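So, who can interpret the following?
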Amino acid sequence: MNKKLFFLFFLFSFIGFNSFSEKPAGILNPINSLSSQDSIIPKKKNYPIAIVGDLQRTTVWELMIGREQNDPERKKIIQNIALKNPAALILLGDMVSDGSDIKEWNYLRNLLRRVKNENIPIIPVLGNHEYWGNDSIALNYAGQCFPIFQKLHWYSKVYGNITFIILDSNRDDLSETAWSKERKWFENILKHYDSDPSIKGIIVCLHHPPYTNSIVTGDNINVQEAFVPPFINSQKTLAMITGHAHTYERFREKGKMFIVSGGGGGPRVILKIGLNVHTDLVDLPTLRPFNYLLLYVKPGGIEITARGLNKDSSKFFTIDNFSISFNNF
C-alpha cells in the first residue's frame, strides 16, 4: 500500500467515513433505562458513577492498516463495570463504529445487556461515530436505543449534590443555530447550578477533548472556544471528562481538571512526547491500558479512580486515583 493510500485509510477510519448509500432503517429496542424525563439519578449510597468512552469496534479500514481489534477487552470492561453495580453508567460517545449501520447498534445492545439487566441507568453522549453515514439514519438509530436523543442532544442529570452536564461537541454536524443554542444553554445551566445551594459540584461530559497529546486527534479548538471558558469561569465545575482520544490522560489547565478516558475498546493511540505537549499528571507509557472511571461522591468532594486493563489480560488494576474538593458554598 503506498503512503498516500495508507494515510487516507487512516484518516477516514478515525475521523469519519461518510457513506453515500442509504441503508434501510430498522427497529431497535431501547438500551437506555433512564428516560429523557428523569432529571435525577436515583441515589445509591457509597456506589460510584461509572464512565467509559469509545466502545466502538475497529472498522475494516482500521484493520487494513493494522490497528488493533479489541472485542475481548471491550466485553471484559463492561462486565467489570456491571460487577461494580454503579448508580449509573455514562458513555462518552463513539458507542458504535458506524451510526448508520444497524448491525453496530445491535452489537452495542448485546454488549450492554448485562448493564441493562442490572437496571443500571445509562447516560449517553453523542460522539462523531454516532453521526457516521447518513445523519438522519444514524440519529434515528441513536434515538431508538437512547430515547433521550429523540428530543435532546445536551442535557443535565443530578446525582445527590452533584450534577452531570452532557454536551454534543460535534460542531461539524450541528447547524450554526444549534451550536449557538447549545453554547447559550451551557452558559445558562452553569449559572443556574452555581446559584443552586443544593448543588456542590458540576461534572461536564462530552466527546471531544479540548486538550490531548494524542498523535491522531489533537486538541479540539471548537471545544476550547465554546465550552472551556464558561467551564473555567463557573464556581462549581470540578472536571471536564471526554473521550475521542483512545487513551487515558489527565491535565490541569487554568486551575481546572480535564480528563480523557477513551479506553473502552477502540483501537488505542500513542501519545506525543517532548517539549510541546500538555503536562500530563499521569505517569504511564505512551501506549496506555484500556480504561474506565469510577466516580465516588464524598462529603467534601469527589474521588475518581481510573481502572486499567492490559491487552490480552483479564486483570484490572488502578492506573490513577485522585480527589477534587468542593468549593465552600
